[in-house]
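Lab notebook, bench 4. The sequencing result for the construct came back, and we need a structural model before the next group meeting so we can plan mutations. Quick request posted to the team channel:

Model the 3D structure of this chain.
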Amino acid sequence: MVALLNAHLDRYADYEKKTEACYGTSGFRMDASLLDPIMFRMGILAGLRSKKTAKATGILITASHNPENDNGVKIIDPEGEMLEQAWEEYATRLANSPNCNILPTVEWLVNIEKINLNTQATVLLGRDTRKSGKRLGDAVIAGALLLDAKIENLNLVATPQFHCYVRQYNEKGAPLDTNAYFENMAASFLSIMHLQKTCRDNRASNANARTYTPVPKITVDCANGIGAFSIKTLAPLVRPALLLVPANCNTDTCLNNHCGADYVVTERKFPAALTPDPCALYASLDGDADRLVFYTAHQHRMQIHDGDAMAVLFATFFADAARTLSLKSRIGVVQTAYSNKGSTHYIRNRLHLPVDFAKTGVKHLHAQAKMYDVGIYFEYNGHGTVLFSDDFRAEIGGLRLHDDGDAYYDDRARCILNILRLYAQLMNQCVGDAVCLLLAVVCMLDFYGMHSNAWSSMWHRAPCRHENVHVNQKALFRASDNERDLVLPLDVAALICRLRNVHADAKIVVRASGTENKVRVYVECDDEAVLERITAEIALFIQSRYGAAQVGGGV
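Done. Here's the predicted structure in token form:
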């Protein structure tokens, strides 16, 4: 290993750092030109992780919604979930090791984790559509080969697919059936839609009525990214029940440029190449297809259905199902400090479900959601899923309904039970998945016979405003209570405390970005004039005292 390592050090020399690289909520992200040495080191780390677990480890090259010139890397654990937290610290340490310290760092890690270097390592590799991905993948492979790792290169693959493939590989072994991902998803979706139509037809027949349900149509903005392949693959499979129209599918250029889920949420504008139609429903994926938002052009204004709206919709369905079937399984919702208080109020006070808060970053929400039998988690930006425990699967699998003489109730209960069993197959259990979320939302809107406008009227969204403030040292900003309260710097914390005392109904969240040298300012207030004033005051205060170069909307 020493000889191989020395042979590669000249090629993957130290990069000139402006700031220390830190493995954050999304791994490492930065300008792609700086990433080669980090990728080489992460190839080594992935090999070590595989030897430690004696299972395949995944390494994914993506920067999600970031601009085309950026890229990033994150390591996927054998169960298809995010890298174990202790190993995030190892990743940071190895990434920042100068060449002369790589081997000592590796030896230290081998000793502290008691890794058997004779264990065969297997590393699965995937990437999004960025042009730098192939070059950076070569650096990963070079690092992994130092550990004599077996490399399975999946090349272009969406983030949620890749998470599932890592899990599938460790459960079933090679070869991976990449077609089954979409085929199984489409089969569950079509079965749910067929069940719901059958139940409607039965009720209409009993009432001597007729039903007609038009095939829904959704135009899907694919952010000119990897999601274009996903939607184009899925579209013909679901065509009997859903018409998917892909847009922004130029994967050779323009990634996330005036399109994608982050652009829609941040700018609150329609993506490029889409013409607003008041009768149409639209959806946007992000650059790696793990985030999703819906929107319409209702009454000459954009109506966005983000992660908060999806949390309300999913919570409503599962709460209804639990009541109808008298389920014992515990259902809970996990949100972040950015979640609109209107959605939290609705879930707690109307649906009577518990709502927990977690730090921003899907790994934190995912871990908290696993505490429930049905754990619904969403970030406001559209990243989330529903997790099902083994106990929940056993309960719905073993549940037998008895005829109590009420034909309507019996029919509806059986329909809901069978739908629950299918949702347990449809929902991605590893990570947020924009494609399966799209299908699940269509199913739920169909279940309630609900138009997208009715979806938005289910709950009252508090007016809100986001600002990004560019700062010199984001590490100065520290928050507590799952990022809902800023504690440092003291002067900013004091300003927020004063504003809260004056405006009791205002929700104010200030926290450092996990991926960029920015501070996020998020404010909710029923009085929109006050909302604008509070947001501007906080953003300008931070900018004037902490070296910000500019202020820009978005999160």
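The CA atoms of residues 209 and 460 lie 34 Å apart.
Will bring this to the meeting.
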